[in-house]
Design a protein that fits this description.
Chain lengths: ~290, ~250
């Protein structure tokens, strides 16, 4: 008990000294970096995923086939390299590598640019595979339906496939965001002022390692818990309503635009009064056919 | 007779070494309702998919108003926007409502403005009796309803010819009727249709032309009276007798 009260006192001490100057800006920087890098990473992933799934047949001209093959190889190399090396190393490699190679012509004026670049391309490498999986998991019938009404590959992708793929990979995007919230902590290696670097600054002066680590643990956990809660909410929003409103129409309107006399019977049973009543009854209870 | 829309010359299709279609010749004129019948695996669906370029023919020509669309360098998307298709598995866009399904093609492909597209979509959805359901998602409606929406979606594109790939095969028996009713109404309005079907009554009573396919070749074709009333080939007789007995 004594230990706990001491821990609490130390945390209060740390927070009053470093809270506003280090911990809070650290939290903000971590969240901004994770958010921006995940967003850019998703864009990279989507572009790679789409480029990777452009179909080609043996009938296409050789040039087109060559370029599509080339694109696939390039994306593959990118994915394997950035998925297969630690992000902490990638940060060092990019941050010091570019000035080294270009004799300081190209260097990062801002630590933010370097951090966003590294985390984005890292996320993009993971997302490329997720997006590819999301795209190939969509029923080929969807593509055929779109093609059959004359859509081009790009139109099919933008209007039909990607919205569905996006819904399917939402959990993956959320996963990547949460991973980024935590893993941006390795950016301290190039001096990025994130939440974890606040810990390093605080303990460097106060030597309160364990209390500061407790603050960090609680902080990271709070961030990721809020993130996963928000992601669930977004997913629900994306799914839309589970029921729908029937639109009243002229009950005498019949199929094929013909008008039928009420007592002559109807071509479709759905148009009959009892059926509509049944459907509306079902809707009232929030139950619809084929509801997941 | 009417204006020639499609002319298929010596069309062949093979998957690897498996020859699915052999030297198919036939024509579709404006206003024709052609039923393609035959046993499963006889190449009916493949023929229809070749006509819509969803499969690439191995050899032969598909002339659309005299222009070969089966060759290289053809804008397949532009051609497909004139040829509607209704699938066995509906293939409605799952991310859109019923109404949105019928609008998207008009806006994106035909570049119509949204309001016109909406009116047109509503018109056809009313025609197939699906106007009350415009706000539903495809997963919320039944198979027969989905297929009627799919027909409305194809019609909204103002196609010159409508291809039906076994439109009732995935439906419960009680839902087959509602879809066939819509198709029959379309046929009576003069829509040019090419229907792959197992519904012999539809082929006999509604179509103007019947094609019987067997093992990748057109075995016999003619008017429904000729093919159903007086089949010339033994294969056709065998096939039809299997339907008569039940």
């Amino acid at each position: 008990m004594e230990k706990f009260s001491q821990l609490f006192a130390d945390i209060v001490k740390l927070w009053s000294k470093y809270g506003v100057s280090h911990y809070l800006p650290g939290i903000r920087n971590t969240l901004v970096l994770a958010l921006v890098a995940t967003a850019i990473g998703c864009v990279i992933g989507f572009v790679c995923g789409v480029l990777n799934t452009i179909p080609y047949t043996k009938k296409d001209p050789l040039v087109k086939r060559f370029f599509l093959k080339l694109i696939r190889v390039v994306v593959r190399v990118y994915v394997e390299v950035f998925r297969g090396t630690p992000m902490v190393l990638q940060a060092v490699f990019v941050y010091y590598g570019l000035p080294y190679f270009t004799d300081n012509v190209v260097k990062f004026s801002s630590i933010w640019a370097a951090a966003i670049l590294v985390v984005s391309i890292n996320t993009g490498a993971y997302m490329a595979e997720s997006v590819r999986g999301g795209i190939i998991s969509i029923d080929p019938g969807q593509t055929e339906g779109a093609k059959a009404i004359g859509m081009t590959h790009v139109q099919t992708m933008l209007n039909v496939i990607l919205p569905q793929a996006l819904r399917n990979i939402m959990p993956q995007i959320g996963n990547n965001f949460i991973i980024n919230v935590k893993d941006t902590s390795v950016m301290f290696i190039i001096g990025f002022p994130d939440f974890f670097s606040a810990h390093r600054a605080a303990v460097g002066a106060s030597y309160l390692y364990f209390p500061s680590a407790t603050v960090e643990m609680a902080g990271y956990l709070t961030m990721t818990l809020i993130a996963s809660f928000l992601l669930r909410w977004v997913e629900k929003k994306l799914d839309g309503d589970s029921s729908y409103e029937l639109v009243q129409v002229d009950p005498l309107t019949m199929t094929a635009g013909t008008y039928s006399h009420p007592d002559r019977g109807t071509p479709f049973d759905e148009q009959s009064k009892e059926y509509r009543g049944r459907v509306q009854q079902g809707l009232k209870h929030g139950r619809t056919r084929g509801e997941r | 007779m009417g204006e020639m829309i499609l002319q298929i010359n010596h069309l062949s299709k093979s998957f690897g070494s498996n020859l699915v279609l052999r030297d198919i010749d036939f024509t579709v004129e404006k206003g024709d309702v052609t039923s393609i019948i035959g046993a499963s695996g006889s190449g009916k669906s493949t023929l229809l998919r070749c006509i819509n370029l969803l499969e690439t023919p191995t050899s032969g020509e598909i002339l659309y108003h005299g222009e070969n669309v089966a060759g290289r360098g053809v804008n397949a998307a532009a051609y497909r926007s004139h040829v509607g298709m209704v699938f066995q598995s509906f293939n409605l866009f799952n991310n859109m409502t019923v109404l949105e399904n019928c609008i998207v093609g008009q806006v994106k492909v035909l570049k119509k403005n949204r309001e016109d597209a909406r009116k047109r979509a509503m018109n056809y959805l009313e025609k197939v009796g699906m106007a009350p359901y415009i706000n539903a998602k495809p997963r919320q409606i039944s198979g027969g309803q989905k297929q009627r929406v799919a027909i409305a979606r194809a019609l909204a594109m103002d196609p010159e010819v409508l291809l039906f790939d076994e439109p009732t095969s995935a439906l419960d028996p009680e839902m087959v009727g509602e879809v066939l009713n819509v198709m029959q109404a379309l046929a009576q309005e003069g829509m040019t249709m090419l229907v792959v079907t197992h519904e012999m009554a539809f082929a006999r009573d509604v179509s103007s032309h019947v094609v019987y396919m067997n093992q990748g070749v057109i075995c016999e074709q003619g008017s429904p009276e000729e093919v159903f009333g007086n089949p010339q080939r033994q294969e056709t007789r065998d096939f039809l007798s299997r339907f008569r007995s039940n």
